[in-house]
Amino acid sequence: MHRTAVPGARPPDPDGDREARERAVATASDAEVLRHRDVARLGPAERAEVQRLIALLDASAEPRRSRRFAPARAGRPDPARTVRETLRRGGEPSPPRYRAHRDRPRRVVLIVDVSGSMGPYADALLRFAHAAARSGGRATEVFSAGTRLTRLTRELRSRDPDAAMAAASAAIPDWSGGTRLGEELKEFLDRFGQRGLARGAVVVIASDGWERGDARLLGEQMARLRRLAHRVVWANPHKARPGYEPLTAGMAAALPHVDDFTSGHSLAALEDLARLVGGRRAARRGGPRTWKGDADA
């Protein structure tokens, strides 16, 4: 950019420039504070701004290596293509051709708890799911869980976040109801996960873990899910509260089978969740993870 003199323009006011800079700094500070505000405590204007920023998140997963091969500049020798190129040249020697494994997008599955205890956060988490479906395309599947399992992938295909949320709200029959995560997770694995949706996928469960059913069933199904999935991420909005410990029966049963335990209570937390989905932060797979009392465990 080059500065140019505009005929008739007034000379810059040093005090005005200082005031503009102060306003810019104040605006940036307000935006940073808004990123860390709990979505359950936002006003109407702040909520609208956070919803707009959630729609811009990129929650696509890391690519995975396919078994299929494609032509490449380096990799394994490709004798068939090398011979065909030699024949095309009339028998003249040609440079060797190579092939390498194709990269395909890894599937992402999001299961969002829409029960009454998750009411203040369900809208923001579903909007995050819409952003994941928009950025991940057909490699992303979305379900809601409460007293029954509802597949929302088709409803969240719309590029307009408000239209997608309206369609999802109309499709969810158990909004603000109870929670039977164990039964819903079993239904997901029986109907969808075992057949392929969960195999090698990044599975995100957004829930506070208030299980009204059998917690042992939830633990069994989480162990089953972990054997199928590439990585299991659990987002609990209450994790960000000071002194939080996963003492509920459902959360205690699920946590040993979770690779990443994070919160989803703010825009910054959802940005961190998007990075986890994309594999942009290392996650140890080792043995079952246990709660250490640390906020970042």
Structural description of this entry:
- This protein has 297 residues and is an alpha/beta fold.
- The protein folds into two domains: 53-61 and 105-277, Rossmann fold (3-Layer(aba) Sandwich), CATH 3.40.50.410; 65-103, no CATH class.
- The protein contains nine helices and nine strands.
- The protein has helices at residues 14-35, 44-54, 79-88, 119-136, 161-171, 181-197, 215-228, 249-254, 267-277; strands spanning 63-72, 76-77, 98-105, 108-113, 140-145, 149-151, 202-206, 231-235, 260-262.
- Strands 6-5-4-7-8-9 form a six-stranded mixed beta sheet, sandwiched between helices.
- Strand 5 and strand 6 form a beta hairpin.
- Helix 6 packs parallel to helix 7 (215-228).
